[in-house]
Write a structure and sequence with these properties.
The chain is α+β, with helices and mostly antiparallel strands. The protein contains 32 helices and 24 strands.
Length: 873
């Protein structure tokens, strides 16, 4: 029995051994076949791989066709926090998985596109799966960022194109540098494209693809990193043990050690003393894996860059600038351009074999980085948001138009210096520049900039303008640049300075009716001008206002009668208010002649109220008129029956009118108030003209402190109302704080353009406060002459504040200067204004009372008793 069992066991062992030998022989035979016919399995593997890749590419192409694009436009005060940016990154990572189940991993990505092509400093777009649109449209940035559906971008072919792919180099577990939010991390990228020129075909685009990290690949990488870390620790422990044994042996063999043994009475034992080798240190997973230790918020990224231009060398230079910009993010890990450099040639995304793969990923938005490129969302903080308030954006022609000589749609603003050093004349659109305010110290360049703008407007648009300068300095400065035959017939000079041996002076009758004014509007404008200049109101001087209004109503009625009779040369002026109030004969004749033209209330006042007024009640009205009459210039200017000055006609015919009131004394302020109120009346009278037929007109007010001292409410009303009538005011002042409160509030509230030159910090603080203290008052106060900080309105959005250089006439308009024709222009401007010798106008004004009295005598009713008994005496 035992022998039989033993025999069966031996047979079983022989069978198993035979099977093993047979298996080994089969394996050897198979290996020999594979070695002999290696190309057959290789070909089969390639076929399987090719078919699989073809299927994956087709599915990825189909998935990529179902993508959407959003454009994010931040406001100028966009200032997000780290938490908001982090939440945006979580949204992007989540949206990358919003794909059908069959979509390959390479198509499951969200792409951030940073693009500069000349239309804006940097366009920020998000492209991702169509299923993630709702998730991506609602951002944690709130109303500070506008999210809108973006249109597809079609680029024209450029002659020179360079491509680059950036990969992470350095320690794979180390993070990128923690870049602060102030200044904006995007600033280096924006600086790299700040000198981009659209007319040369320049284009720069950065694409960052974000997708969730594949977990199985991440686990394998962690195992590899931990294995490498343990291997390094073992090597370090072995190296330390060798050095310890070496050091111990050296000590025991030394003479000092033996002497110590003899002196201590110790006998050396057999053999050397035992040296305990160091134990390998336990590997800390957090330390070994670094940023790869946790799955949360870990993503894989792909960074592609493309630059193009129609000019040789510009695309390569742009790529070098962008490469330097990405160096800012370098820390333990850094962005480095993929490829290798061989002499002057770089083998990378622009050359075979990488170029085809680059273009496929670029066109189809596939994320297939050659290296893992794993980063945490915190490392991408600077790229997960649009430019913030801490970013200094260049002003491209699309943001601030370039001024073109002869273009009627543009209004010159100054000279902008780009970060790259290129200078260009910039402008705003005339239709959007409704009101302008310029502030700064005397001599800073406010008037020079306004003159350049006015001269450009006169030449390019053929537009009408009014330049009010109390000091007259602007007229001789602008004279050479306006001395053109095409402009001479449109320019009128109203100069009340009366300088020279034979001064020429224009004339104006504020009460004149020969220009088809409305009677009650003329009365109201003149009375309001006196009240504004003299500080009258219904509480402080009700009697003076009543007396003056009643007197003006009678004189205007006389002028209406004279014009209907075809005798405008017999019209009354403001100086006849005195005769009307103090001369019974003239008053009786005047009231009798115009009795049918006065309303019932006015007639009743003259019948019942005037006779009981005390004599001293007229002094407050007569005093300012006496001062006006005592000055030969103002008497000559206001004392003519049919003056030539007509601002409404000047607006409608696009004239260029220069008005120099002559100073800032009490009499000058009254003249200024009359002119300002008449301008307000004339502009409001444009309501009788359809809006499309109202010719644009631009009043320029130099020295607003002087002008508003005479008519504060009138100037404030201009900044509030004139836009409706296509009249756009430009004001300049040294101190905004010295303006009356109504004017100051209206200026700042409605200003399309707000500019400031240098000045004291306290004076400039009112302007910088409107800009949010960016720039600070100290920075504006340190500006050089002709330098301005300015905020503008372009395409409905506020641009700036940005620093510009004020245009200098001798530089910008050098080709327009005609110094030899200045004398001819001055003569033409005076002739257009109807200027006459001062002595002649003075004599005519002195005799005007007699002419009016003669006219009234001819129009008195036939029965004198009927009107002499009504109590007008």
């Amino acid at each position: 029995m035992d022998a039989s069992a033993t025999h069966l066991s031996d047979r079983a062992d022989d069978t198993a051994a035979g099977q093993v030998l047979g298996l080994l022989a089969g394996l050897v035979s198979a290996a020999d076949w594979v070695i002999t016919y290696w190309y057959v399995p290789m070909a089969a593997a390639l076929v399987v791989w090719g078919i699989g890749e073809m299927v994956v590419r087709r599915l990825a192409r189909k998935a990529s066709a179902e993508r959407m694009a959003l454009e994010l436009v931040p406001t100028r005060h966009f200032d997000p926090g780290l938490e908001e940016i982090f939440r945006r990154g979580v949204q992007l990572a989540r949206a990358s998985t919003s794909m059908p189940w069959w979509a390959p991993r390479r198509s499951k990505a969200v792409q951030i596109r940073l693009r500069a092509d000349g239309s804006s400093p940097l366009r920020y777009r998000i492209e991702g799966p169509a299923g993630g649109e709702r998730l991506l449209s609602i951002t944690p940035f709130g109303p500070a960022v506008t999210v809108k559906r973006a249109r597809p971008l079609a680029d024209k072919p450029r002659k020179h194109v360079v491509r680059a792919e950036f990969i992470l180099r350095g320690k794979p577990t180390a993070p990128l540098r923690d870049v602060p939010l102030d200044p904006d991390p995007l600033q280096p990228l924006i600086d790299a494209v700040c000198d981009l020129r659209a007319e040369l075909g320049d284009l720069a685009e950065v694409r960052l693809d974000i997708q969730r990290a594949p977990k199985w690949t991440l686990r394998a990488r962690r195992v590899q990193l931990m294995t490498d870390a343990r291997r390094r620790e073992r090597r370090e422990a072995q190296r330390a043990a060798r050095w310890m044994r070496h050091d111990a042996g050296g000590v025991e063999d030394s003479l000092a050690w033996h002497v110590q043994q003899l002196l201590g009475g110790k006998q050396s034992g057999g053999g050397r003393r035992l040296v305990m080798p160091p134990v390998p240190r336990r590997v800390d997973p957090q330390e070994a894996l670094g940023k790869l230790a946790e799955d949360d918020h870990l993503v894989r990224v792909q960074l592609l860059v493309m630059c193009a231009s129609n000019t040789e060398g510009r695309a390569e230079a742009r790529l070098g600038q962008l490469q330097a910009a990405f160096d800012v993010f370098g820390g333990g890990s850094r962005w480095a351009m993929r490829g290798w450099l061989v002499g002057p040639w770089r083998f990378g995304a622009d050359r075979w074999p990488s170029r085809r793969a680059f273009e496929r990923r670029w066109n189809l938005r596939h994320c297939q980085p050659p290296r893992p490129n794993w980063v945490r969302l915190e490392e991408l903080t600077g790229l997960l948001k649009p430019p913030t308030v801490h970013c200094r954006l260049p002003l491209l022609p699309a943001d601030l138009p370039t001024f073109e000589f002869g273009n009627p749609e543009l209004l010159l603003q100054g000279i902008y210096r780009a970060p790259g050093g290129r200078r260009r004349l910039v402008a705003t659109y005339a239709t959007e520049t409704l009101f302008e305010v310029g502030v700064g110290k005397a001599g800073g360049g406010k008037t020079e900039r306004a003159l350049a703008q006015a001269i450009g407007w006169a030449h390019a648009a053929g537009g009408g303008l009014l330049f009010v300068d109390p000091h007259r300095d602007s007229w001789p400065r602008a004279l050479p640049f306006l001395a053109h035959d095409t402009l001479m017939q449109r320019i009128a000079l109203i100069d009340l300075n009366a300088h020279g041996p034979a001064p020429q002076l224009s004339s104006w009758n504020p009460l004149g009716m020969h220009q088809d004014q409305v009677a009650h509007e003329v009365v109201e404008a003149t009375a309001d001008a006196f009240a504004s200049a003299l500080g009258w109101d219904d509480a402080s001087a009700p009697r003076a206002l009543t007396i003056l209004t009643a007197a003006l109503a009678v004189l205007v009625a006389i002028n209406e009668t004279a014009c209907r009779a075809g005798r405008p040369e017999d019209q009354a002026t403001v100086f006849h208010v005195r005769a009307l109030l103090t001369d019974p004969v003239f008053r009786t004749a005047a009231l009798a002649a115009v009795e049918g033209c006065l309303d019932e209330e006015t007639r009743s006042w003259w019948q019942t109220m005037f006779p009981v007024l005390p004599a001293d009640s007229f002094a407050v009205v007569l005093n300012p008129l006496t001062r006006l009459a005592a000055n030969p210039v103002t008497r000559a200017f206001l004392g003519q029956p049919a003056g030539v000055y007509n601002i409404r006609a000047a607006m409608d015919s696009k004239m260029i009118v220069w008005v120099c009131p002559g100073g800032n004394g009490p009499t000058d302020r009254l003249i200024t108030a009359l002119l300002a109120r008449d301008l307000l009346r004339a502009v409001r009278s444009r309501r009788d003209t359809p809006e499309a037929q109202r010719a644009p007109f631009r009043p320029y007010f130099d020295e607003l402190i002087t002008l508003t001292g005479a008519a504060p409410e009138t100037i404030a009303a201009m900044f509030e109302d004139f836009r409706k009538y296509r009249v756009h005011v430009h004001g300049m002042t040294q101190l905004l704080a010295r303006l009356p409160a109504p004017v100051r509030l209206s200026l700042v509230q409605n200003a399309s353009t707000l500019a400031s030159t240098a000045g004291s910090q306290s004076a400039i603080a009112a302007i910088t406060a409107e800009w949010g203290e960016h720039p600070s008052p100290a920075l504006v106060a340190a500006l050089d002459r002709y330098e301005h900080y300015i905020s503008l309105t372009v395409n409905g959005r506020r641009t700036g504040p940005v620093q510009i250089t004020g245009p200098h006439l001798d530089e910008v308009f050098a080709d327009y200067a005609r110094p030899r024709q200045t004398a001819a222009l001055e003569r033409a401007a005076q002739a257009k204004a109807g200027a006459a010798p001062l002595h002649q106008l003075t004599a005519q004004a002195a005799g005007q009372l007699a002419r009016v009295s003669g006219f009234l005598a001819q129009h008195i009713p036939a029965t004198p008793a009927a009107w002499t008994q009504k109590g007008y005496q």
